[in-house]
Specification:
about 270 residues, alpha/beta, Rossmann fold, 2 domains, about 10% strand, elongated
Length: about 270
């Protein structure tokens, strides 16, 4: 059933849904530059650390990277379940690579390592993207530097992209993780949107959904930005809630007082 706010605002789809093609993603200039840096790092066969607070757009950056990375010379493997011990982690990696998982941790590791070496013979550079890496078990984290070590540590046959919350960086700087941290060549922080970014993002997503007029008043946008601290995920949620509330009130323009009432209502819901 079509949501009432889509009809009311003349939208052809939910403007702030996460179900959007990689090619249609919007990124501010700062995050576009970050994607450029990631592509350059992988072209140089380097490993990368990418951290940021929840909802600031880490996944959007990674999806843009997936769109930009040449398919012919790279093989990107995505792993998002980081809450595994070392053996199950390598079993998951084998399955993602299309390899038959073995019984022991040593055999699993050998299968992954051999696969990486085989790809080098095909002139394909594998990239393992480990999302939510701040949740990695310590025994897995301590072992990853061995996965990067080929031919007496003389060849860069594999790139790791470790993605997670800022505490991942804190963990990697600890002494017992220094072997891995020293092999991570580039380290990036994904920042929150600026006020101008938030305004442009709202306009872009509404335009993509078929609406070219101003829907959010400038002071409403400022309040949304302040309330979400520039986090895309929260901005999507609150902007959608504001459209629903404006529809209920028959308001064609989302104004500051409507957003303020919405935020106050949310605050009452979470206050015990």
């Amino acid at each position: 059933m079509t949501a009432a706010y889509l009809t009311f605002f003349g939208l052809n789809e939910c403007p702030f849904s996460k179900e959007i093609a990689d090619a249609d993603l919007w990124l501010p200039p700062s995050k576009q530059e970050l994607v450029d840096e990631l592509v350059a790092a992988l072209a140089d066969r380097e490993s990368v650390l990418l951290v940021g607070e929840p909802g600031v757009g880490k996944t959007c950056v990674l999806r843009a990277l997936r769109q930009r990375l040449p398919a012919q010379g790279f093989r990107l493997t995505y792993c998002h379940n980081a809450t595994l011990g070392r053996r199950d982690f390598y079993r998951q990696l084998c399955l993602a690579l299309g390899l038959a998982p073995s019984a022991t941790a040593a055999a699993l590791f050998f299968a992954v390592s051999a696969h990486v070496a085989d790809l080098a013979g095909e002139r394909v550079h594998p990239v393992f993207l480990l999302d939510e890496a701040h949740l990695l078990h310590q025994d897995t984290l301590e072992h990853l530097h061995i996965l990067l070590n080929y031919q007496w540590d003389s060849r860069a046959l594999l790139s790791l992209i470790l993605v997670g919350l800022p505490e991942l960086r804190d963990r990697l700087t600890l002494r017992h993780n220094r072997s891995l941290y020293s092999r991570i060549h580039r380290r990036f922080v994904v920042g929150a949107l600026t006020p101008d970014d938030s305004a442009e993002y709202l306009r872009f997503r509404l335009h993509r959904a078929g609406c070219d007029r101003e829907v959010f008043a400038s002071d409403a946008v400022a309040l949304l930005h302040e309330a979400t601290a520039g986090a895309l995920r929260d901005l999507d949620r609150l902007a959608t809630a504001a459209l629903r509330e404006a529809t209920r009130r028959k308001k064609r323009l989302v104004e500051r007082d409507l957003v303020l009432r919405l935020l106050e209502s949310e605050q009452r819901e979470v206050t015990p």
